[in-house]
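Structure (tokenized):
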């Protein structure tokens, strides 16, 4: 650590910047430049290991005092002390909790300005630098030398803008206090000033008052950067980028603050980096020209060029002079120049530039090296400068190890500088060292910066990858010998680029990575001794008949049935409920391995046709076919590229509506489901049975809103086409309709025309959700959350579309989940009450309660009835009930509810189990419901393996349901199984959902962690025996929680998780999730996402908490090759990052818990997965869990 020597008079301090071990900071003050130097402050004496460093320092104008800020262990936090220069006595005061601060003395030498944050609350033990709390409420203070910090004067704060940062400076004439206000890292600031003469009793006059500095606000908006370089009384000269992305000098008289004139206009090519007033009427300025510095002497008043200083190609820094000085010192360095301190004398007309000190490195021979600058085209053609340093005359045969460095952010320019370690790499390892000056930096001004930030951040990665490709193509290196490096924002760059290759499912690197992961995972699973028993037991219990509720069309009934271990359920048809059932469609005959599944189906009103959508390998893509029900003949047409679609028949039975995306361009070979392209330009079509898809009628599109999704439905009376428009995953939609009678020649009348459906737009904004449940001609009843976060039923006459009345008002506590018109004048509705279902019969017209059906605690699903039907079927399940199909007859006054079919699981004894629901306080006190299922009467001694499941997003409610695999875990592994109904879901309506989305997403993680902590404190388990699990958004939940609290879990299972929160919107349907997450293209939302994005928050726990070393829990990430919802790249990139950061980048890593990935082939996000694949996956993940938690098999 460099020492501060008594060679530092104010205004004269030759400096060399600290660059690795070449030279440490020396602040020169002495009576003359050739006077004796004395050590003034040696930070090396302040700690045994050299981890206390000088963060900032400032000498008072009379050179009597030195104020210096010390940081420990590299933290940004600092403590300011004051020393008397004459005798090196340290004053007794200590100024704490200083951060992002300069030190600026007033010219009366009484004290200085500094900036700080509020101290932590009393009683809170903080190891400064290890905490992760958000830094808010910066404040500006003035400290009087010799007084306690408690007496410091608060000069500025802005509690209404808690992210603001404040910096004070005192002008060289001592007359003005300058206050700069910043809020982010953009080169913009507000600019205020205070006339010292306006303070009647000086700064002491503010003591004991609540008044802040009486500033004048010259610039009170964040429109540009403003930095004062000189003033003549009220006439100020400033360096600014106002209307000058490459910066300029401008002048303003504070008496006329709206009148600004340019002194030194913006250059057409070079960036004005700095300007300092010197020698009374001159200034020394530096420009950056193609990442190389130019230094000039200019006239301060006119800006005219006087002289250009003859410096080599390289970088200058630390201009040391005040306006009164005729001698200027500045530092210089380059790739081949360790360091020069120049002394420039301006007494004569021609500047006298000479070397004041030169830094030499023994053993370094610059003649051995060569530096070149090349300009390489990026992906979009932009030329990117890159420096290449190597030994002279190397052959370009691709044989050299190569280190490529980049940063690309926050307007920071990476310019030539010397490095001992880099010279060693080149000299002794034969390496090539390169710096790519990618966009996002400041090398070409603010336009270059903006071209690599926010929505254009991708340019940084493209530039860096193009630089790497150039180094390979030019023969400097080859991929296996190329290393990339970056820190901070450059660390993000490296992480993005090493993972970027995994975004291409067809790249050789991805295939090789996947193959290695498969081999690793299989090697781990072979050691999981319960794997075989789990597979056997789950298979045995899975082998039971399963049914869903029958649905009636025409005079026929249709239902799905699985005999037990069939890959896919089979669709049956029968003429009556007790009639003979026949197989109508068996998906198991459509593929040998059961990976073709039924995605959707719809029977025409007369039960003549079945339209059915088939998906392959679990993809969201589907192909629609049409079958004649009577003879099971399949019509010849095939409807392709269907996605996110329902099938809705018109009542004339001629055809149906469906939704699709445009087909890929001709000649493009696509394995549907493995591509990652963004899904845009959804369209609604109508298909006539017996015709080719090319003849289908385009009914709706909206190219101006390419993210919109369309769904058509036909009312039960057949009179109206309902069009629902969605854009994200929020429960909101637009609602249009088309009166079929308005189509003079029916839908056929649209054939050959460019006209879309002539719809009436009832609701044309995304303000709420609207779903029609019934209509009587133009009077429509809808389920909506308009001004009702727990939902209600409302009615509107389409003849008066602005007049809405409530039919069934919002409940105060329970969430209205569904409503279906039945039995002519009635409706069956379901509520969710503390995550348990209630089913009621109500009057359709008035909404009045008629009957509540007597069902057990659990979940209901799939109400099957039309308005004309007096019999309703619906499904029921719970943690201890495999399944019941209820039949409810409404012919009589009292509903007749009976069991139509009951699903039983041989070998499952519900009497062995117990389910409880608890309500646990989250971090902010909110009560979170959680179900806990275990064997009866277990001792609460912390000995049990425990599986905690969560989701928490997209308004999805996780309600009680039966699971074969979970029952096996509890019965044979002695596990406790829990579901935490955390915020973000729909369990308590839209307010509960919003409390866990967007800027409040952190609540989800806090809730889940609180649930885990409860399970430990209540004695169910202990951290080493606790496993967490979640899928999709729940996979994100698991990823975020293991990053935040790796010490709390022994195992983690993350299925198909959204792991890259900065880029999820760039793949398939990811853009729809911005309604829940936000979007990194927006500055504020970027900051939400970067805080918890699993991919970007992997860290080594043992480095964060050295006194309590932890490692990540044993982790399995599960994904599938045809998951085109949450594409596999999320899991693959997170897996690569976890393995690299925690294990492969270290020789002796403390991370001994395995981090593995299970990558399923011919499967997708989960839907349509064959039975055997589900069994195999359950056996794999839960045997892994059992092994990692130390759970033993119980017969």
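Design, position by position:
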């Amino acid at each position: 650590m460099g020492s501060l020597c008594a060679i530092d008079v104010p205004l004269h301090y030759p400096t060399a910047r600290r660059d690795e071990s070449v030279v440490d900071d020396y602040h020169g003050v002495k009576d003359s430049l050739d006077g004796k130097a004395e050590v003034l402050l040696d930070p090396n004496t302040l700690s045994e290991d050299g981890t206390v460093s000088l963060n900032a320092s400032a000498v008072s104008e009379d050179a009597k005092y030195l104020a210096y800020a010390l940081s420990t262990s590299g933290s940004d936090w600092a403590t300011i002390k004051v020393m008397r220069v004459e005798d090196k006595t340290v004053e007794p005061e200590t100024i704490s909790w200083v951060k992002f601060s300069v030190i600026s003395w007033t010219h009366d030498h009484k004290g200085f300005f500094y900036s700080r944050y509020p101290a932590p609350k009393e009683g809170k033990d903080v190891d400064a630098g290890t905490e992760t709390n958000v830094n808010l409420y910066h404040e500006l203070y003035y400290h009087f030398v010799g007084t306690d910090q408690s007496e410091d004067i608060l000069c500025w704060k802005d509690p209404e803008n808690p992210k603001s940062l404040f910096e004070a400076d005192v002008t060289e004439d001592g007359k003005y206090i300058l206050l700069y206000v910043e809020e982010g890292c953009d080169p913009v600031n507000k600019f205020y000033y205070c006339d010292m003469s306006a303070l009647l009793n000086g700064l002491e006059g503010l003591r004991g008052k609540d008044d802040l500095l009486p500033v004048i606000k010259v610039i009170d908006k964040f429109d540009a950067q403003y930095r004062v370089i000189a003033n003549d009384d009220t006439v100020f000269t400033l360096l600014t980028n106002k209307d000058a992305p490459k910066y300029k000098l401008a002048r303003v008289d504070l008496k006329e603050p709206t009148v600004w004139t340019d002194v030194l206009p913006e250059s057409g090519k070079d960036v004005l980096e700095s300007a300092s007033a010197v020698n009374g009427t001159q200034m020394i300025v530096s420009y950056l020209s193609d990442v190389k510095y130019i230094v000039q002497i200019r006239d301060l008043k006119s800006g005219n060029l006087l002289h250009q200083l003859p410096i080599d190609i390289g970088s200058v820094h630390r201009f040391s002079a005040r306006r009164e000085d005729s001698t200027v010192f500045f530092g210089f360095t380059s790739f081949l120049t360790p360091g020069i301190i120049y002394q420039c004398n301006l007494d004569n007309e021609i500047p006298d530039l000479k070397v004041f000190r030169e830094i030499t490195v023994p053993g370094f021979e610059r003649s051995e090296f060569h530096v070149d600058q090349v300009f390489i085209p990026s992906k979009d053609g932009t030329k990117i400068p890159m420096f290449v340093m190597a030994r002279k005359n190397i052959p370009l045969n691709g044989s050299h190890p190569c280190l490529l460095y980049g940063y690309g952010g926050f307007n920071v320019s990476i310019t030539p500088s010397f490095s001992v370690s880099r010279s060693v790499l080149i000299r002794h390892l034969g390496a090539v060292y390169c710096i790519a000056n990618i966009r996002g930096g400041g090398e070409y001004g603010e336009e270059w910066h903006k071209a690599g930030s926010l929505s254009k951040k991708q340019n940084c990665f493209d530039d860096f990858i193009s630089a790497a490709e150039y180094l390979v193509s030019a023969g400097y290196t080859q991929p296996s010998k190329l290393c990339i490096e970056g820190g901070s924002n450059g660390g993000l760059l490296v992480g993005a680029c090493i993972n970027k290759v995994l975004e291409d499912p067809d790249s050789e690197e991805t295939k090789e990575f996947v193959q290695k992961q498969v081999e690793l995972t299989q090697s781990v699973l072979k050691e999981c001794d319960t794997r075989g028993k789990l597979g056997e037991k789950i298979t045995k219990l899975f082998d039971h008949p399963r049914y869903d509720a029958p649905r009636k069309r025409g005079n026929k009934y249709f239902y799905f049935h699985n005999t037990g271990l069939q890959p896919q359920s089979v669709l049956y048809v029968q003429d009556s409920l007790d009639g003979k059932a026949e197989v109508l469609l068996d998906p198991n005959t459509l593929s040998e391995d059961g990976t073709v599944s039924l995605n959707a189906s719809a029977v025409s009103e007369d039960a003549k046709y079945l339209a059915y959508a088939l998906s392959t390998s679990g993809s969201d893509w589907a192909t629609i076919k049409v079958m004649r029900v009577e003879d099971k003949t399949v019509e010849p047409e095939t409807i392709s590229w269907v996605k996110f679609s329902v099938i809705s028949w018109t009542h004339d039975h001629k055809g149906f509506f469906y939704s699709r995306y445009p087909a890929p361009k001709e000649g493009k070979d696509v394995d549907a489901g493995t591509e990652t392209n963004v899904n845009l330009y959804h369209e609604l079509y109508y298909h006539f049975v017996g015709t080719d898809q090319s003849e289908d009628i385009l009914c709706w599109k909206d190219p101006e809103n390419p993210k919109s999704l369309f769904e058509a439905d036909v009312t039960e009376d057949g009179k109206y086409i309902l069009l629902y428009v969605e854009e994200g995953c929020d429960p909101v939609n637009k609602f249009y309709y088309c009166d079929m009678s308005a189509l003079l020649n029916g839908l056929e009348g649209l054939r050959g025309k460019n006209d879309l459906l002539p719809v009436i737009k009832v609701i044309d904004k995304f303000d709420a959700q609207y779903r029609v449940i019934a209509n009587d001609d133009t009077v429509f009843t809808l389920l909506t959350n308009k001004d009702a976060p727990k939902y209600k039923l409302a009615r509107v006459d389409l003849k008066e579309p602005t007049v809405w009345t409530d039919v069934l008002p919002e409940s105060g506590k329970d969430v209205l989940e569904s409503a279906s018109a039945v039995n002519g004048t009635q409706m069956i509705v379901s509520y969710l009450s503390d995550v348990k279902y209630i089913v009621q019969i109500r009057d359709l017209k008035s909404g009045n309660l008629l009957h509540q059906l007597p069902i057990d605690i659990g979940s209901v699903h799939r109400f099957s009835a039309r308005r004309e039907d007096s019999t309703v079927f619906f499904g029921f399940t719970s943690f201890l009930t495999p399944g019941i199909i209820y039949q409810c007859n409404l012919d009589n006054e009292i509903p007749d509810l009976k069991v139509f079919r009951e699903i039983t699981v041989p070998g499952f004894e519900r009497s062995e189990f117990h389910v409880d629901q608890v309500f646990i306080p989250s971090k902010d006190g909110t009560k979170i419901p959680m179900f806990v299922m275990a064997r009866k009467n277990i001792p609460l001694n912390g000995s049990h393996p425990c599986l905690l499941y969560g989701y928490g997003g997209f308004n999805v409610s996780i309600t009680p349901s039966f699971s074969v695999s979970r029952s096996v875990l509890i019965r044979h592994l002695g596990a406790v199984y829990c579901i935490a109904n955390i915020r973000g879901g729909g369990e308590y309506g839209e307010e509960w959902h919003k409390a866990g989305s967007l800027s409040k997403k952190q609540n989800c993680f806090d809730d889940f962690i609180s649930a885990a902590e409860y399970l430990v404190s209540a004695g169910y388990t202990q951290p080493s025996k606790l496993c967490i699990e979640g899928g999709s958004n729940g996979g994100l939940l698991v990823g975020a929680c293991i990053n935040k609290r790796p010490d709390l879990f022994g195992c983690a299972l993350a299925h198909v998780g959204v792991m890259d929160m900065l880029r999820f919107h760039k793949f398939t349907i990811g853009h729809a999730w911005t309604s829940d997450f936000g979007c990194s293209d927006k500055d504020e939302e970027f900051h939400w996402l970067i805080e918890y994005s699993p991919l970007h928050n992997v860290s080594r726990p043992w480095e964060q908490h050295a006194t309590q070393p932890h490692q990540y829990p044993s982790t399995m990430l599960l994904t599938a090759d045809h998951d085109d919802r949450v594409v596999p790249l999320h899991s693959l990139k997170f897996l690569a990052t976890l393995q690299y950061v925690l294990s492969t980048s270290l020789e002796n890593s403390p991370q001994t818990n395995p981090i593995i990935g299970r990558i399923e082939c011919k499967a997708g996000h989960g839907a349509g997965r064959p039975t055997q694949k589900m069994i195999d996956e359950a056996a794999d993940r839960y045997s892994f869990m059992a092994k990692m938690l130390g759970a033993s098999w119980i017969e």
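Reviewer-requested clarification: Residues 1171-1189 form the longest helix (19 residues). Residues 40-121+133-223 form a domain with the Methylamine Dehydrogenase; Chain H fold (CATH 2.130.10.120).
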